[in-house]
Amino acid sequence: MATAIYKFQGFSTKTNQFYPQRLYDIELAKQDLLNEIYTRKGERVMEPEFGSIVWELLFDPIGEQAQQDIKADMIKIVRRDPRWNLEEVQSNQTTDQSSITVQLDLTYVPTTTPVQLLAKFEQRSEEAN
């Protein structure tokens, strides 16, 4: 019986902190990317540049400059992880300005698999994380 060979292996405690889930390859890369995207910039100890600026933009009108800032921030985050190529970034805000959705169109480099990630930032999500 042959065993699977994985290029990347890791653990996630997102669903259950007592019994970590094993993640491999593309699923691990997605979770690693989302971990940085959902971390508020400056929140990680000893790494002030880690994380995203999107949390700071909640409840502010998203104009052209803010959309450019979000795009630049997502480009910076994706470039930190060599497993991904960023194809496109789109951001949208609800009319009441209480949530921002960022859509990332990516390519997973080891297998050239296209992936679309949606990251939704809202006050409830911030309190839950």
Describe the 3D structure.
- The protein is α+β, with helices and mostly antiparallel strands and 129 residues long.
- Helix content is 30%, strand content 29%.
- The strands form two sheets. A three-stranded antiparallel β-sheet has the order 3-4-5. Strands 1-2 form a two-stranded antiparallel ribbon.
- Strand 1 and strand 2 (21-24) form a beta hairpin.
- The N and C termini lie far apart (41 Å).
Question: How would you summarize the topology of this molecule?
Answer:
Elements: E1 9-12, E2 21-24, H1 25-37, H2 54-57, H3 64-79, E3 84-93, E4 99-108, E5 113-122, H4 123-128
Antiparallel strand pairs: 1-2, 3-4, 4-5
Succession of helices and strands: EEHHHEEEH
Given helix and strand content, the structural type is: alpha+beta
Q: How many helical stretches?
A: 4
Strand content: 25-35%
What number is the mean pLDDT? 84
Features:
alpha+beta, 129 residues, disordered C terminus, 3-stranded antiparallel sheet
Task: Please give a quick description of this structure.
By secondary structure, the protein is of the alpha+beta class. It has helices at residues 25-37, 54-57, 64-79, 123-128; strands spanning 9-12, 21-24, 84-93, 99-108, 113-122.
